[in-house]
C-alpha cells in the first residue's frame, strides 16, 4: 500500500488556524441533531417528516406493520412501547432522545469480536465527503477506514484542513457517545456518534460528521487535541451554489476570501464569513471587471476568479 502524504493534500487544500482566544470547552448553544419528543395525542395528533421517519425505522426493525402516514397514532405508539419493553425501558410510548437511541441500535453493525489495535504512529484523519468515509492515517499510511454521514447539500460539511479542538464524552443528546470538535472558524462542527445510525453513508447532517457509536468510541482514544483533520471534497459544496451573499458562512466563502486576497481586493480575515469587508471587495471587483453593479458572488465572478 503506497504512502499518502500530507504534503500532497495540503497542496490542494488550505489551512485555517483556530479562532484566537476560544475556549476549548465551548458548548454549542443549539443542538442541530435534536428531535422533538413524539407521543400519542388523540386530540391533535402529531404529524410530520419526523413521524414518517420513525414509522419507516420501526417498520425496518419489524415492530410496525401499519401504513407510513406521518401521523403518530395508536399503532405507532404501540410499536414504540414494544421497542421500549424489549430494552427494559418504561413503555410510555414517548419517542424521546433515549428511545431514538434504542431504535438506532437496531441499525448498528455487529460489534467485532476482537478490538482493532490502536495505531502506534502519528495519527491524521482524512474525511472524503464524496465517498462518505473517514480514513485514519498511521504515520501517513491508511490504517483504518469507517463509513460516515456528512452534511446535506444545503448544510455542507466544511472542506479544508482543520484539527481537533476539543473532545467530550456524551456531549449532548443526539450526538451519540463521543464528540470531537473541529477548528472551523464560522461555526461549531465535529465528528460524533449519532442516534440515527441508519443515516450513515448518506448526506444527512447539518455539516457534522456522524459515525456509528461503536466506531466513534474506537476512534476517540486514538485522537488527541490538535490531531490534523483533512476534509476533502468540492469546496463550493456538493452542488455549486449560483450565488454567495452577505451573511453566508461556509467553505465557499473562505475560498472566495482567499482568491480575492490573492487578486488584491481583500485584506480581511480568512474565516469563511461573508461580512461587510468582503462585500465591499466584491462590489469593487465587479466594478473593475465591468460586471453588473451588485454585491454578490455569482457565476460570472466564479469564472473570473478561476472557479
Distance between the termini: 33 Å
Number of strands: 10
- What is the CATH domain class of one domain? Mainly Beta
Output the number of helix runs.
Answer: 8
Q: What is the helix content?
A: 25-40%
Please describe the biggest sheet, giving its number of strands, its sense, and whether it closes into a barrel.
8 strands, mixed
Q: Which residue ranges are poorly predicted, with pLDDT under 50 across at least 5 consecutive positions?
A: 1-31
General description of the model:
The chain is α/β, with parallel strands linked by helices. Among the domains are: 115-232, L,D-transpeptidase catalytic domain-like (Beta Barrel), CATH 2.40.440; 251-304, PGBD-like superfamily/PGBD (Muramoyl-pentapeptide Carboxypeptidase, domain 1, Orthogonal Bundle), CATH 1.10.101. It is 26% helix and 16% strand. It has helices at 6-12, 49-60, 74-86, 97-107, 213-219, 251-262, 276-288, 299-304, and strands at 123-128, 133-138, 141-147, 150-151, 160-169, 178-182, 190-192, 203-205, 209-210, 228-232. The strands form two sheets. It has an eight-stranded mixed β-sheet with strand order 3-2-1-10-5-6-7-9, covered by helices on one side. A two-stranded parallel sheet has the order 4-8. A hairpin with a 2-residue loop joins strand 2 and strand 3 (141-147). The radius of gyration is 22 Å and the shape is flat. The model is unreliable at 1-31 (pLDDT under 50).
